Fold these 2 entries.
Entry 1:
Amino acid sequence: MRNHRNERRASSRSWDAVAGWYAGWVGKDGSRHHRLLAIPALLDLVQLRAGESLLDIGCGPGVLAPAVAAAGARYTGVDLSPKLIAIARRHHAGSGRFVVADATRLAEVPGLETGGFDAAAFLLSLQDIDPLDAAIASAALMLRPSGRLAILMTHPCFRVPRQSGWGWDEKRALRFRRVDRYLTPLAVPMQDYGGGRSGTTRSYHRPLSAYAAALHASGLVIDAMQEIAGGGMNGAHLSKAERLAEAEIPLFLALRAIKRSGAPVVTGWRR
Ligand SMILES: C[S@@+](CC[C@H](N)C(=O)[O-])C[C@H]1O[C@@H](n2cnc3c(N)ncnc32)[C@H](O)[C@@H]1O
């Protein structure tokens, strides 16, 4: 209980202070990770059809918008940062609309219709949004019955900010992943953006069970999951041991959950 109270005391903040750095770093079309891994995996899960609508929650500079528009779907991006929304409009106004909004209170935003979206997505944003339960409940409210929620995040079991990393086992000539902390939710200040000059954001680590419980509590049923390795990205520069480790230990976790129309079938899920 103590840990969850601590997590609830923190609350997510806009990325305004690092907006220029972040938008420059990912670029107009997204970083290599976005283009080669994250966006294709998210689109694969969400299976958009022409004419459908998608809400991109924590959209930042809007790198998902062109792919959604290319699928013939209607795109709405929301983010707490007015600066990132301004950049998104500058780069991608032709692909959809962008709205400044708090992901944990979407039902209060004029122009966003509750139950009005076929799909919603958190693309590398849910781990920067707090509290988790409110963000998931808010996303669920915006979906129509049977609507899909897709979540793409760094894998919470292996990529715990500041509490995990690569190690080298000399005897076995083996690259391994160490995880120092996992079950305790953490609000981790991320201060190394732009050489530490531009600002601080927070990343929120939660164990996998917290995501499953939050989805269940909001009437969302997980029906698909992908664990995505990042190794293919820099293969040419890696040693054999590094390649093996990168191929085995996933970088991203992608989940799809469907909005249930009736009451929960199973009760008693616990954190
Ligand atoms: C790592 S960035 C990801 C942005 C974008 N999805 C991408 O992949 O480039 C995380 C984003 O979450 C946004 N964010 C954090 N808390 C938020 C909240 N409560 N409501 C809306 N957006 C939030 C930040 O402003 C930031 O743009």
Entry 2:
Amino acid sequence: MMVLNIEEILTASKDWLKANTKRYAFKKLEREIIKTGVCVECGTCVSNCPVTVITATRTDGKYVPELTGKCISCGICYAMCPRTLTLPEHLIGEYISIYKAQSKLEGGKRQDGGVATALVSAQLKAGELDAAVVAKQGEVSWLPVFSIATSPDGVLDSGGTFYTHSPVVEGMMQAFEEGHSKLAVVGTACNIDGITRLQGHPAGFLNLSKDASILKIGLFCMESFDYAGLKEFLEQNGIKIDDVQRMAIAGGKFTVTSSSGETEWPIADLNHIAARSCSYCHDLTCKNSDISCGNIGSEERWTTVIVRTELGKKAFELAASQGIIEYEELDNKAIQSVLNVSRMKATRYYKMEPAH
Ligand SMILES: Cc1cc2nc3c(=O)[nH]c(=O)nc-3n(C[C@H](O)[C@H](O)[C@H](O)COP(=O)(O)OP(=O)(O)OC[C@H]3O[C@@H](n4cnc5c(N)ncnc54)[C@H](O)[C@@H]3O)c2cc1C
Ligand code: SF4
Ligand code: SF4
Ligand code: SF4
């Protein structure tokens, strides 16, 4: 039997945190996780403190870690707690590179830099895809339907953002029924998670199919709205949804452009109409996609692009090689703002009532 040198390993843990990250003391763990009821009573903090100053008491059966000596602020308890988010991958998932980019395609609609559309367009132009599944305007104003586009020009008009759920995965399955097998799908994290389940589950359609291939283009997403609630909110503010030309969420504001100009509200004013499903969602940047697009971190008319997989990298490089996107690496300050908003989204569900 090999006896572990626990002291030596905890010293290495301490050294790694010191060299690589910001370190947080027990007080922060207590304030954010223990006192809020987010703690899952696992004992990781208690058992990894190198100076053994965390002790758990049992109060009415509840395991409560407490400081019982002098904390040396080594950061281990906070970093190792399964409920804290300290590494970039906890917040934005795995990635290869992060850029800001802009489409050079003429015409059509775009929300930010038009990159989501440009990526799809480049794939269709090069014959890499049979079709792309995107959201587009249906018969009811601002209520999206899915669209199956088979030509580069066919996707141009589907640019822009609908701030309501859109059933693009249904569109993906319809594209298969229509005989397409190499697809790109653009969608929010919840859409892309549906596809990822179909890929990863032993009984999932995409796992069982040998021939289907999907490029998953994710969109950053803080929340979407209940359609009826959004319509009513606009009406209460004197705007008919039929008259809206553009909606945008950026910089904590919701901005609507209509025939009477631009009107904006702090995003918090719309909390009551957020889709209920979104309060369970903690993924801002669509971690399960091949490549994600959003506006946080980039200035107006540019898209922040997170390249995550080899498939996503190939798609980005193809669009760049066709000259339909220009790009540069996103600087650290901008990446930090993506991390900050990701943390805000991921921890907002901590505010839910503790279940016990
Ligand atoms: C509900 C929602 C909330 C968002 N919230 C944020 C946010 O808080 N912060 C942030 O940085 N970015 C957010 N985004 C992403 C942002 O609005 C842009 O989609 C992203 O920056 C890409 O811009 P683009 O100009 O490159 O895309 P474009 O080239 O304009 O293409 C946009 C693509 O999104 C598709 N699309 C539009 N609406 C939907 C929908 N409801 N469901 C699925 N696909 C859709 C379109 O079909 C098109 O393919 C959100 C997107 C959605 C859909
Ligand atoms: S010494 Fe380190 S592990 Fe122990 S309580 Fe302080 S920060 Fe946490
Ligand atoms: S590591 Fe986190 S979740 Fe586990 S007992 Fe400590 S505070 Fe609670
Ligand atoms: S917040 Fe989550 S659940 Fe809601 S639309 Fe965005 S990705 Fe989907």
